[in-house]
Write a structure and sequence with these properties.
This protein is of the alpha/beta class. It has helices at 12-16, 18-25, 38-45, 61-72, 103-109, 112-128, 159-174, 206-213, 215-222, 248-258, 273-276, 281-291, 305-321, 326-345, 359-367, 405-411, 425-433, 449-461, 490-502; strands at residues 27-29, 50-53, 79-82, 133-134, 179-185, 227-230, 264-266, 296-298, 369-372, 383-388, 416-420, 437-442, 466-469, 481-484. Strands 2-3-4-5-6-7 form a 6-stranded parallel sheet. Strands 9-14-13-12-10-11 form a 6-stranded mixed sheet, sandwiched between helices. A two-stranded parallel ribbon has the order 1-8. The longest helix is centred in the last third of the chain and has 20 residues, at 326-345. The radius of gyration is 23 Å and the shape is globular. The N and C termini lie far apart (58 Å).
């Protein structure tokens, strides 16, 4: 039996009153383990209306189905959220790589019908596992190709393209009864800082913001997105003092007022240093609800009961001190419960969606861009796969495999592989390859000087090297054969391996 930790205010009267129930209702916490912990079950009984799943909670679809069934036994309309973008950011396929390409690959194809079909199949799988709330899609316009956290998570650099694919993604997912959560409002695409680490700042004028960042969110609202996630970014043209998640001007005046959005507003992860490192976790949560947020995402890092109780008590104390209006907390909790009711009513929609398990690979194949040079020649035997690994950002994580090695080892028996990640990688890869033909796999070559240098070394010595770019294809194509996949999902690796063999 799990030991239940308590706080001084964790009494039956505190947990049972309306104020405490509302404070629990606005939290979307994570937890450890692959089964439902006792403390989570208890708090659901006391008003917790949402929980969040992360990679650590996922072993298989069957296990997730059992986990969500156990949670929902406590509350039939429980919101079970997950950060499943498909592509590079995957939780359902965290141990294998995603069965669906991400946004940048779908944007490269630029067929909204395909995007809708991919998100519909993803929604069908999520719903079958008992997940009814997805913190996706990313509607960020990737205006800065050096962005360290968005990149291939974006449909592209064109506001119009991002808008039409955001709408299609929302429509496909929600047709299965899974609520979409369009992010990161008011737009995280023009940042050069990862908000997991610090507060990014976007210094553009209001006209640029309205013309470039907001169209995808307008499209998502028109498509009926059930939720929108705020960004921990400072946009002085909107609010010179507070980041979006904590800004009434951004969440209430702009999103609710000007854009007319009436659905749920959920924060990005509140443990992220942009908030917790600047305002403190508990105070940041109070400020977010006061600014207009309705639900608090927490649990990517802090996933214990004491965190939940501390946030509950901070909200209750803020109401009692007058810092947070009680009606604002009540309104936020009501919006959470309204979304929960929608998902419960829509639960049967997943069963009406025909399975299309090959759609992800179909989309990945369509997204490939293949460039050949005069040095190109067919592969005649096993190859050496040299994978150049950049440090992953926190959103992607380091659990999910990527690349083409596994598939090429299957297609070309005798193929071997090695990973390299620092200065001297090119010479090390040459030594590891011996006399074999080299397939060099990179991710965002344009952002990493050491990776660019490694390719220089390889291509100078071995001009017949095949290059597979699985990140943002900003660098000019080079190598005997250059394959851009527009993302590092598992299916992108499969499609790239097929193209390597085709030559």
């Amino acid at each position: 039996m799990t030991t239940i930790a308590t706080t001084a205010s964790d009494s039956g009267s505190a947990a049972g009153d309306t104020l405490a129930r509302n404070a629990l209702a606005v939290l979307q916490p994570g937890f450890d383990g692959t089964t439902a912990p006792d403390w989570v079950r208890r708090r659901i009984g006391e008003g917790l209306a949402s929980v969040a799943l992360f990679g650590r909670n996922v072993v298989s679809e069957e296990q997730v189905t059992s986990l969500t069934a156990g949670l929902r036994a406590e509350r039939d309309d429980l919101l079970v959220a997950i950060d499943e973008e498909s592509g590079d950011v995957t939780r359902l396929d965290v141990r294998t790589g995603s069965s669906f390409p991400g946004n940048h690959a779908l944007g490269a194809v630029d067929d909204p019908g395909l995007t809708r079909a991919v998100s519909r199949e993803l929604g069908r799988r999520l719903a079958a596992c008992g997940v009814n709330f997805d913190w996706a899609p990313s509607a960020d316009v990737n205006a800065n190709p050096d962005n360290p956290v968005i990149g291939v998570r974006s449909f592209g650099a064109s506001p119009d393209k991002v808008a039409r694919h955001t709408a299609a993604w929302v429509e496909g997912l929600q047709s299965t009864g899974v609520a979409a959560c369009t992010k990161h409002f008011p737009g995280h695409g023009d940042t050069n800082v990862d908000s997991h680490h610090a507060v990014p700042r976007i210094d553009v004028d209001a006209d640029t913001l309205y013309e470039r960042e907001l169209p995808p969110f307008r499209a998502a609202i028109a498509a009926g997105t059930r939720a929108i996630m705020s960004a921990h970014i400072l946009v002085p043209a909107l609010d010179p003092d507070r980041p979006g998640t904590l800004s009434r001007r951004v969440l209430t005046d702009l999103l609710r007022g000007e854009l007319g959005y009436q659905g749920l507003i959920v924060t990005d992860g509140m443990e992220m240093r942009a908030i917790s490192g600047t305002y403190g976790l508990e105070h940041g949560v109070v400020l977010a609800i006061a600014a207009g947020a309705d639900a608090i995402c927490v649990g990517g890092g802090l996933c214990d009961e004491n965190t939940v109780l501390g946030l509950r008590d901070a909200l209750v104390a803020a109401v009692r001190s007058g810092e947070l209006p009680e009606e604002r907390l009540a309104d936020a909790a009501a919006r959470v419960r309204d979304l929960a009711a929608w998902t419960a009513a829509a639960r049967g929609d997943a069963g009406k969606t025909a399975a299309d398990p090959e759609i992800g690979l179909v989309a990945a194949r369509r997204a490939l861009r293949v460039t050949r040079s005069g040095a190109a020649r067919p592969l005649t035997g096993p190859v050496h796969v040299a994978q150049f690994n950049p440090a992953p950002n926190i959103a992607v994580g380091d659990q999910t495999p990527w690349g083409v090695a596994t598939e090429l080892e299957r297609l070309l028996p005798g193929t071997d592989s090695a990973s390299f990640s620092d200065e001297g990688a090119g010479a090390a890869a040459l030594a590891a390859a011996g006399g074999r033909r080299i397939v060099a796999v990179v991710r965002d070559e344009h952002r990493h000087d050491w990776m660019r240098s490694a390719l220089d070394t390889l291509l100078a010595a071995r001009p017949d090297t095949v290059v597979v770019e699985m990140g943002l294809p900003q660098a000019a194509p080079r190598g005997a054969l250059h394959i851009a996949t527009y993302g590092a999902a598992r299916v992108c690796g499969v499609a790239a391996a097929e193209a390597v063999l085709a030559g």
